[in-house]
Amino acid sequence: MVDWADAARRVEQWLLPAECLACQQRVVEQGEPLVCAACRVQWRALPEPSCRTCGEPSPLGLACRLCVGWPAGFGPVRSAVFLDARVRPLVHRFKYQGWPRLAGAFAARMAPLLAGVTDTDLVPIPLSAGRQRTRGYNQAEVLARALGALTGLPTHPERLRRTRETPTQTRLAPEARLANLADAFHAPPAERGVILVDDVFTTGATLVSAAGALLDAGASRVLAITFARAEPSLAGAAVRLRSAIHSFTTEEFP
Questions:
Q1: pTM score above 0.85
Q2: N or C, fewer C-beta in 10 Å, the chain?
Q3: What is the chain's alpha carbon radius of gyration, rounded to the nearest angstrom?
Q4: H helical segments located in the chain
Q5: What angle do CA 222, 191, 177 make, to 5 degrees?
Q6: How many other CB atoms are there within 10 angstroms of residue 93's CB atom?
Q7: What does the alpha-carbon distance between residue 122 and residue 155 come to, in Å, rounded to a whole number?
Q8: Cβ partners under 8 Å of residue 91, min gap 6
Q9: Is 122 helix (H, G, I), strand (E, B) or coil?
């Protein structure tokens, strides 16, 4: 018996072949991902060593200052890739330009970071009502549901809500971000552990504010995961310094 739906899909693929959103080349993989394998392999994973609490890379193994003052019971936070020139346009499309299907490719890179995690709820960072109306969806919730489909962890957006509209965080300094998000989230009482899900980690201010609300409501622990992470401003300098020191010592003391 002919599967007419499958036949129609194959004809559509032949007439309108899928293109990668990153390189615009034809996608020939099964499932037609929006980003081809050649582009996905160029996404840069975060290196080790990193902070055990916030996940910030520490090329020189120095003590982390980013998460000083974070609430007890929050962490670890992990991110799948760096928010570099290859990833940033895709995140922008996912977040602002109506491409929720990118969540599948993003979640596939995030899922291995949750290996072995059980009995925990995936809780997306909520948007304000106004921003959700403008975008048509909450990208963090779409990402959480895609991650849940891969890991088997339940998604429970009702465990966290945003209590007020906040100005955009984009141009704010780290201290201002924390002040901007003070008391911005509310969580109903619940003891089960939580994994906060968001698209991007910049300073961690949003995650810290949300984690505080969940911990105050009784959550036994709060972890977090994001697809991308902004590159540390001093990471490149640290790597160059380490290379220079290594080069100097090997030349002077072979």
A1: no
A2: N
A3: 20
A4: 4-15, 37-40, 88-96, 103-110, 129-135, 139-151, 174-180, 205-216, 235-252
A5: 35
A6: 16
A7: 5
A8: 83, 199, 200, 227, 228
A9: strand
